[in-house]
UniProtKB/TrEMBL annotation:
Keywords: Glycosyltransferase, Transferase. It comes from Candidatus Nealsonbacteria bacterium CG_4_10_14_0_2_um_filter_40_15. The keyword Transferase applies. One of its GO terms (molecular function) is ADP-heptose-lipopolysaccharide heptosyltransferase activity. Pfam families: Glyco_transf_9 (PF01075). CDD domains: GT9_LPS_heptosyltransferase. This is Glycosyltransferase family 9 protein. It comes from the Bacteria. GO terms for biological process: lipopolysaccharide core region biosynthetic process. GO terms for cellular component: cytosol.
C-alpha cells in the first residue's frame, strides 16, 4: 500500500478559523433581539469524538448552571446517540465536522432547530454554518477569541517545554464555568434497557476480566503502533492473565483485527463496527481495562473511569487523562510536532516497546487506584 507522505486531514482544522470569522462578520445581520425571551440555547460543537469528550464536562456543567433553559446541541453524526444521553439535553441535531470522516456519512432530514436567545459555537464546520445562518437568535457567541489565545498559549508552553492548559479547561472557560470533575452518573442518563442490551453482547457475556483494545485507524502511520507489536503484547497478556480481550473500533479497523487474530493461537473478540458510541461508552464503563492509542475511545475510557494504558503518538499535549487510573506512555514529549503532518521513517510511536506497555499494564492491575503516571 502506498504510504501518504503528508497528512492533510489535520490541516482541515484551519477551516474552522475562517468559519468563525465569517460568523463574527454576519452575526449582527442574523441576530434578532425579539428571540431574547425564547428560553432556549443552542450549543454547536461539530468536532471529532476525542475533542467532544474534552468538552462534555463543561457542557454538563453549563446545563446545570442554566437549568431554567432548554438546551439543544449540534454535533457530528456519530456522537448523536451518546449526546442524547447527556442529562438536560433537549434536542440533538447533526452536521458533519470539518474532517468529514467516513463515520460521518449519516444524513438526517427534517432537522428543525428552535428560535434561540443564544447560540454558542464551540466548534464549527461548513455544514454546521449552513444550519446556523438560517436560525433566528438574539445573540451568537463563538470560541474564536478563546482559540486564538489558546493557540498562542500552547506555542509558548511548547517552546518552554512545559505542559499547556488542557482543552477541557478551555471548554469550561468558553462556557463560563470553572473546571471541575463530574461523576459519570451525573453526566449521562442511561436506562436499564441500555445496560441490558450491552450485557447481552456475546463479547461481554462471561465473568472474566475484560480488556478493551483499540489499535486505531491506520490512515496516518505516525500514530500507528504496529500490528506485530500488538500481537506480541496480547500473547504476553494471555500468558499472564485470565482475561477476555475485546477489540473495538470503526469498520476500517477490521483488517487490522483480522490479521492480529490470525496470528494468535487463542480466541479474541471483536465489537468493531457492531455498536454505536453510546453503547461503546457502556462497554468501556463495564470493562476492567483499556489499552489503546491516543484516540476518541481512549478519551471515552477516561470519562468512563476505566483503568487505561495509553500509547501516545505525535500530538498536542492537551488531552491528558483526568480519572487518576491511567498510565501514559509517551515518547513524543511535546517534540517533533511535524510528525502530525509529515511522514518520517522512524516515528516516535515506533520507539514504544512491547515490554514497556506490558509492564505498564502489570502496574495498572497491581494498584487499585493511582494518579496518572508518565513513562
Amino acid at each position: 500500500m502506498r504510504q501518504n507522505k503528508i497528512n492533510l486531514d489535520y490541516l482541515r482544522f484551519w477551516k474552522e478559523i475562517f468559519l468563525f470569522l465569517k460568523i463574527a462578520f454576519i452575526k449582527n445581520f442574523i441576530s434578532d433581539k425579539t428571540a431574547n425571551k425564547s428560553g432556549s440555547i443552542l450549543i454547536v460543537n461539530t468536532c471529532l469524538i476525542g475533542d467532544f469528550m474534552a468538552s462534555v464536562l463543561a457542557i454538563r456543567d453549563f446545563i446545570e448552571r442554566n437549568n431554567d433553559k432548554k438546551i439543544d446541541i449540534v454535533v457530528s453524526p456519530p456522537l448523536k446517540p451518546l449526546v442524547q444521553k447527556i442529562i438536560g439535553v433537549r434536542n440533538v441535531f447533526v452536521a458533519k465536522s470539518v474532517y468529514e470522516r467516513k463515520l460521518e456519512t449519516v444524513a438526517e432530514e427534517n432537522q428543525s432547530p428552535d428560535i434561540y436567545e443564544k447560540i454558542i459555537v464551540l466548534r464549527i464546520s461548513p455544514e454546521a454554518y449552513r444550519i446556523i445562518k438560517h436560525i433566528i437568535a438574539a445573540k451568537i457567541e463563538t470560541g474564536l477569541w478563546h482559540f486564538l489565545k489558546y493557540g498562542f498559549h500552547i506555542g509558548g508552553k511548547l517552546i518552554a517545554r512545559r505542559t499547556p492548559k488542557q482543552l477541557r479547561e478551555i471548554n469550561f472557560e468558553m462556557l463560563g464555568g470553572k473546571m471541575r470533575d463530574i461523576p459519570f452518573e451525573e453526566i449521562f442518563q442511561f436506562e436499564k434497557i441500555d445496560y441490558a442490551k450491552v450485557t447481552q453482547l456475546s463479547a461481554l457475556d462471561i465473568k472474566q476480566k475484560k480488556i478493551i483494545i483499540h489499535t486505531g485507524l491506520t490512515s496516518w502511520s505516525m500514530k500507528k503502533w504496529s500490528d506485530e507489536k500488538w500481537i506480541k503484547l496480547l500473547r504476553l497478556i494471555h500468558q499472564g492473565y485470565d482475561s477476555k480481550i475485546i477489540f473495538i473500533g470503526a469498520k476500517e479497523e477490521e483488517a487490522s483485527y483480522a490479521y492480529i487474530s490470525s496470528r494468535l493461537n487463542f480466541k479474541i473478540y471483536s465489537l468493531i463496527g457492531q455498536i454505536n458510541i453510546a453503547e461503546l461508552m457502556l462497554v468501556l464503563k463495564m470493562s476492567d481495562y483499556f489499552i489503546g492509542i491516543d484516540s476518541g475511545p481512549r478519551n471515552m475510557a477516561d470519562i468512563a473511569g476505566t483503568k487505561s494504558v495509553i500509547i501516545l503518538g505525535p500530538g498536542l499535549p492537551i488531552f491528558q487523562p483526568t480519572n487518576g487510573k491511567s498510565i501514559v506512555i509517551d515518547k513524543f514529549c511535546g517534540r517533533g510536532l511535524y510528525q502530525l503532518y509529515f511522514h518520517k521513517k522512524n516515528s516516535f510511536i515506533s520507539r514504544v516497546e512491547v515490554g514497556e506497555v506490558y509492564e505498564a499494564f502489570k502496574n495498572l492491575i497491581s494498584v487499585k487506584s493511582r494518579e496518572s503516571n508518565q513513562i
